[in-house]
Amino acid sequence: MEAKGSPAPVLGLSSTPTPPSMAPTTFEIQTEIAPGPSSSTSPAVLQKCTRCAYMGPVDSYPPRRTGTGHLKVCIGCMDKQVARKSASTVDSSGCGQIATAAMSLDDFLKLVTLNKGRPFDFDTMVNLPPGMFAAGEHLYNRTNKIRDFLAEASEYHWNQKKTKRGGKSTVVTYFCAQLEGEQSKSRNQDADRAKSRSRITRYHCGGWLRITTMDDNELLLRIRMTHAEAHPSFPASFRKSQSGEFKMETTPKPAPKQPLFTTAPMTVPVGVTEVPQLIPRDDVGLEDDGLGPMLEQPQGNGGPPPSIPEVYFSPDQLAGLRRKFDAMMSIASGPCHPELAHALGSVFDHLDRTVGDIEVGRFAKRRRIS
Questions:
Q1: Rounded CA gap, 85 and 87, in Å?
Q2: Smaller CB count within 10 Å for the chain: N or C?
Q3: Phi first, then psi: what are they for 243, rounded to 5°?
Q4: Which of 214, 223, 126, 124 has the alpha carbon at shortest distance from 167?
Q5: Which residues fall within 8 angstroms of residue 241, CB to CB, at 6 or more apart?
Q6: Region (Disordered): which ranges (predicted)?
C-alpha cells in the first residue's frame, strides 16, 4: 500500500544545496559603500540653551571643566552669571565701592552741608582729628558723636537701627527719622508725646547712614551716607537732645546769713558762771596737726564769702535716672550679650570713679572744717 503524505518542507530562501566539492574557493567582499543621500546631507546637532532662547551647535557652548562634553548654558548666559557673582561678592565684602578718597572730618561735613538740599550718596573714608575720643570710650559713644555732627550738617535726624560686627570692623547703621516705614514702635507715652509723633511727616527718602569703625585704628572711619529724596529737615520742636547728658538747672544761691559772731567760739567749763573774754580770730593758733586754722577766715572786710552758683537736678530727671538705673541693674544681674556687658562695664567704671571723687571731696572738706 502506497503511503500518501505531505510534501517535504522547503525553505523559502534556500535553493538546492551545493555539494561541497562544488563550493567556491574565493570570496569577494565589498569594502566601499556608495554614498547615500542621508550620509551626505546630515545636519550638525543643535542644542538649546537652558536659560534663554538661543539654539546652536554643541561646539558653540562652553566646554566643561572636566574636558568631556559641553555645558547646556550658552556663553552669553555664562558671562552674565559671572558678572552677577562678582557684583554680589563686592557688595557683601564692601570692597571697591568707595567713591572718594579719604578726607578729614571737617571737609566731609562741609561736603554734606553743600549737598543737604538735594539727593546725595556718599561713601568715603574719613580721618578723625587726634584726641576726639577719650581713651576706652565705648563704641556707641564714638559713633553717636559722629552721627550728631552729620545730623547738624545735613539737618536730618538719624536714629540707630542695628550693629553688625565683622572680622576687624563694626558697622553701626542709622536711618533717617522721617523715613516712611522705619518709625519706632508705639510705646506707652503721654498724650502730648503721642500727638507730636503723629504730626511728623514721613517720606520715602531712602535715608541711611552706616558708620564703620576699624579695630586697629580708631581715627579712621568709613561713612556711607545716602539720602535719595530731599525733604524738610526734622522739626526742632520734636528733636531730643542727643548728647545723652542731663540738662542742669542753675538756681541762684540764696544770700548767706550774716554770722552772729566774728570771733572763734570758746568752751566754758561746767560750773563757771563768768564768761571768758572772746579772743579775736587772728589770735587763734593753728591746730596741732598743722592743717591750718580751726575755722576758715572770712574773706574781704569781714563780710560773707562771694556767692558761688549751685547746680540742681530737677526731680523729674532724678526720678527718670532712678528708673533707668533700676532697669540697668536688673539686666546686669542676669546673662546678657557681650556688647551689652561691655557697655554696662563702662557705666559701672564711670560710676566708681565718680563716687570715689565724691568721697575724696567729702573727706577733704571734713578735714578742712574739723
A1: 5
A2: N
A3: -75, -20
A4: 214
A5: 247
A6: 1-22
Q: What's the pLDDT tens digit per position in 294-337? A: 444 445 455 555 555 667 778 888 888 888 888 888 888 878 77
Per the listing, cell 556688647 goes with 339
6's grid cell: 505531505
Residue 282 has pLDDT above 80, yes or no: no
Retrieve residue 156's grid coordinates. 536730618
State the pLDDT confidence band at 211, using cuts at 50, 70 and 90: very high
Give domain limits for the chain: 46-93, 103-182+199-237
Q: Look-up: residue for cell 537736678? A: 313
202 closest CA partner among 238, 149, 240? 238
Cell of 345: 562695664
Burial class (CB in 10 A: 0-12, 13-18, 19+), 187: exposed
Tell me the β-bridge partners of 228: none
The one-letter code for the residue type at 120 is F
Kindly list the distances between the CA atom of residue 290 and the CA atoms of 197, 283, 287, 293, 294, in Å, as whole numbers in the listed order. 64, 16, 5, 8, 10
